[in-house]
């Protein structure tokens, strides 16, 4: 299933991850543990603003079925079943949320050497339907995504994109927000390990004629430590440091500064993921 063009959500994802992944202004602590049977437990505590939340998750894989159960502090339970290869070249994902059953969803993904298709249906009385398709190869792909609300008989979204990938770079253009925005991105790797990279992204909002230009990059200081940075034309500067404390246990420190208002206190985020 990895020889095709990938899902529509993969278009522009590598560049987006360099600019957004692991950046946070919250405080988060998560602890993972694994039993001999392969059952994985994760306990997470999160402080966001002045609010503190947490959840406990359990994940277990048996043959071609992955079961993920999450309990949060609001007494909500989210259970996700992922079935691989029930039908050849497919993945089926069913998510059930208690007591909010309107949030339940069923998604089916189909992978082919030159195409991928995804259909997601919300399990409520008047369901919404999302459909995406991607055509091409791992080197060049064209895709589109639409969302339809059966209650109002209207489209909730429609998006189209194209991506071109080479061993040392990838570029993409995505037209989203029902045709109101255009986002173009380019990522270039600086080494064969693909741990060092530079990224440029331009987003234009057609209705307001606003342009946002963001540049950033990632750099591996050593095998245990990496840093990332980004800056946009609105003066928002972000920086991130990740360090592997012990194998698989990661410390992440990130910050955001408004260079046009240096008198304001920078936003700081801290995340610790521990694996005993």
Automatic annotation (TrEMBL):
Q: Which PANTHER family match?
A: MITOCHONDRIAL OUTER MEMBRANE PROTEIN PORIN 5-RELATED, VOLTAGE-DEPENDENT ANION-SELECTIVE CHANNEL
At the highest ranks, the source species' classification is:
Eukaryota, Viridiplantae, Streptophyta, Embryophyta, Tracheophyta
Q: Where in the cell is it found?
A: Membrane
Organism field: Trapa natans
Could you state one GO biological process linked to this protein? response to bacterium
The protein's name is: Mitochondrial outer membrane protein porin 2-like
Q: Which UniProt keywords apply?
A: Ion transport, Membrane, Porin, Transmembrane, Transmembrane beta strand, Transport
Q: Does the keyword Transport apply?
A: yes
Q: Which GO terms describe its molecular function?
A: porin activity; voltage-gated monoatomic anion channel activity
Recorded GO CC terms: mitochondrial outer membrane; pore complex
Name the family the entry cites. Belongs to the eukaryotic mitochondrial porin (TC 1.B.8.1) family.
Report which superkingdom the organism of origin falls in. Eukaryota
């Amino acid at each position: 299933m990895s020889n095709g063009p990938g899902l529509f959500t993969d278009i522009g994802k590598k560049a987006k991850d360099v600019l957004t992944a692991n950046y946070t202004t919250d405080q988060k602590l998560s602890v993972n543990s694994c039993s001999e049977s392969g059952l994985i437990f994760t306990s997470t505590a999160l402080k966001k603003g002045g609010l503190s939340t947490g959840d406990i998750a359990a994940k277990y894989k048996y043959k071609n079925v992955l079961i993920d159960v999450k309990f949060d502090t609001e007494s909500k339970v989210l259970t996700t079943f992922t079935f691989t290869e029930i039908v050849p070249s497919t993945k089926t994902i069913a998510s059930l949320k208690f007591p909010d059953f309107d949030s339940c969803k069923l998604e089916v993904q189909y992978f082919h050497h030159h195409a991928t298709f995804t259909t997601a249906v919300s399990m409520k009385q008047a369901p919404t339907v999302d459909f995406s398709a991607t055509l091409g190869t791992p080197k060049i792909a064209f895709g589109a995504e639409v969302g339809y609300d059966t209650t109002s008989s209207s489209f909730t979204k429609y998006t189209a994109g194209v991506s071109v990938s080479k061993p040392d770079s990838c570029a993409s253009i995505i037209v989203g927000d029902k045709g109101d925005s255009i986002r173009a991105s380019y990522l270039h790797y600086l080494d064969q390990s693909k741990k060092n990279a530079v990224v440029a992204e331009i987003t234009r909002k057609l209705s307001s004629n606003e342009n946002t230009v963001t540049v950033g990059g990632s750099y591996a200081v050593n095998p245990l430590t990496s840093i990332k940075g980004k800056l946009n034309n609105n003066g928002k500067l972000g920086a991130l440091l990740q360090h592997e404390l012990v194998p698989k246990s990661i410390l992440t420190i990130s910050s955001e500064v408004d260079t046009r208002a240096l008198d304001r206190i920078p936003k700081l985020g801290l995340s610790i993921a521990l694996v005993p």
